[in-house]
Amino acid sequence: MNSHDSKSIIREITPLSDKDCFYLADRIKTEFTYPLHSHSEYELNFIENAAGVRRIIGDSIEVIGDYDLTLVTEEKLEHVWEQHNCTSKNIREITIQFSPDLFMGNFLNKNQFSSIRKMFDAAKQGISFPMEAIMKVYSKLDSLSSEKEGFYSVIKLLTILYELSLCDNIKILSSSSFVNIDNNSDSRRILKIYEYINTRYKDPIRLEELADVVGMSPVSFSRFFKLRSGKTISAYIIDIRLGHATRLLVDTTNSIAEICYECGFNNLSNFNRIFRKKKECSPKEFRENYRKKKIII
């Protein structure tokens, strides 16, 4: 299977208008064909009867079970569901998209919405919900598309979001450094660095050249980057390289050594050590887990 590249990523334009609270699509399908994409709307996506489908959100790659429920709230976070090993011809998918300004003004900052606010923040990396949370909201999700009164549909959606926000064992999906998050207006320099690294991660990258990109001294740049990103520049580069390596392990038959050097690591033993530390398994074990059609529920 071919790996995804930037040319295959599309920017989805949803049918949601300024006068709508949310967009919902409840459909029965036989396969997943939509390509890797991103969009500005928040998205809650529920999938039923699709065991074997491969879900990719950022650098998270998992094969789902019979039920899957995810939330994505970052407009630049790429995601896709691929057919992979799914043979079901009765797949149900409920996609709910709503604008971030649905909770306009200071509404989301009220005490009663604190858990939803925290959930939205976590979902910038993409989150998945455990089975107990899915079952808790299943009946509301199931009936949402048949609700005839728009007002009650909105109340039902708010209830779904609230009940999900009370779940204390959500799973964070994508690495934080893989998400191109623009948090503040003064982040132009950090975004230039993200872009520079994302296009050159295969090559050796020196601290001095990164500092030159934003016109800072190496010492000042190191402090600046750590303050703005929450991690050192070397840790960020490693996370970017590992994110691409995980996709190549799943999407290609390239050898682990080839993937190591393709992703900018110049030492195979070092690559194996770093991979195990970050992913809690070796690159070989990671690939074999997917060959065994590991199911994540």
Descriptive overview:
- The structure is a single chain.
- This protein is of the alpha+beta class.
- The chain folds into 2 domains: 6-176, Sandwich (Jelly Rolls); 180-291, Orthogonal Bundle (Arc Repressor Mutant, subunit A), CATH 1.10.10.60.
- The protein is 40% helix and 16% strand.
- It is built from 10 helices and 11 strands.
- The chain has helices spanning 114-122, 131-144, 150-165, 188-200, 207-213, 218-229, 233-251, 256-262, 268-279, 283-291, and strands spanning 10-11, 23-29, 37-38, 42-48, 54-57, 60-63, 67-72, 79-82, 91-98, 127-128, 171-172.
- The strands form 3 sheets. It has a 6-stranded antiparallel sheet, with helices on one face. Strands 6-5-8 form a 3-stranded antiparallel sheet, with helices on one face.
- Helix 2 (131-144) runs antiparallel to helix 3.
- The longest helix is centred in the C-terminal third of the chain and has 19 residues, at 233-251.
- 29% of the residues are buried.
**Mean pLDDT over all positions:** 84
- Based on secondary structure, the structural category is alpha+beta
Helix content: 25-40%
Largest sheet, in brief, is:
6 strands, antiparallel
- In total, the number of domains comes to 2
| Straight-line distance between termini | 24 Å
CATH architecture of the largest domain: Sandwich
Strand content: 15-25%
Oligomer: single chain
Shape descriptor: globular
Tell me the CATH superfamily of the largest domain: Jelly Rolls
| Total beta strand runs | 11
H/I helix tally:
10
Uncertain residue ranges: 1-13, 293-297
The CATH C-level name of the largest domain is Mainly Beta
Roughly how many Å is the radius of gyration? 20 Å
The strands making up the biggest β-sheet line up spatially as: 2-9-4-7-10-11
Taken in chain order, the helices and strands follow as EEEEEEEEEHEHHEHHHHHHH
Within the CATH hierarchy, at the fold level, what is the topology of the largest domain?
A: Jelly Rolls
